[in-house]
Hints:
Strand content: under 5%
Order of helices and strands: HHHHHHHHHHHEE
Mean pLDDT: 84
Radius of gyration: 21 Å
Strand order of the largest sheet: 1-2
Number of strands: 2
Structural class: mainly alpha
Number of helices: 11
Low-confidence stretches: 271-280
Oligomer: single chain
Amino acid sequence: xxYFERALLAVIVIGVGAGFVGALVVLRKRTFxxxxxxxxxxxxxxxxxALGVSVPAGAAVASxxxxxxxxxxxxxxxxGAQVAAGIVLTGGFxxxxxxxxxxxxxPVRAESLLVGSxxxxxxxxxxxxxxxxxxxxxxxxxxxxxxxxxxxxxxGFRAMGYxxxxxxxxxxxxxxxxxxxxxxxxxxxxxxxxxxxPAAAARLxxxxxxxxxxxxxxxxxxxxxxxxxxxxSFAVAAxxxxxxAATAFFLLALGLSKLxxxxxxxxxIPVETAEGARIA
Length: 280
């Protein structure tokens, strides 16, 4: 398999997994948390590159630490999850930039850590992304009812005797795994686009929980393929191209939803007939 075919396979697998997990992120309104993770794992990726170990492995360790830190900050009185995410986002990214400056001669270019390098992904990166996607789908298949009820009716979920923290922990763990598996393709900065944009686009065009879970991975894979093709055609970086393709899908879905809403409003406008009767 050539490098270009491997890149296409990688973005399809990563796009499917990121889109699927992104559906949970968007529906549960955890996008800012995912963004904090994408930026906060940067120092882990830098440290892994300096030590000569797998970059996703370093990012995975950093994500575990960040989840613990964010959970601790969120429990502080008068603080919350949004405050914790904001602190981790800025602090983690700043730590990564400082660490990169202090370690000369990194074997991996800083640009590849920030915006990805899809043409250099390894078979291990693809396998990791495939495992994350399969595990995420299996867990949602097993606990989909609990996740849906917790997402759309948290009060009813608690009234039925369920605890919220296992579902929250499950979604956050899948988010961290998706962020880590997306790093080789789109890097620390742009991973949020591949996670959030396809799911947000799917949410605009379909109205059910299952529908978003089905459509978001398709949009994620399509964004990856179109981004890689555009990268090859215009000789630009693949990571930004993938992120822009995902953004374009969201804008297209937003436009279609606006047109659909306008059409519905027009059909609801009363019309006066010649006899003065009103037709709804």
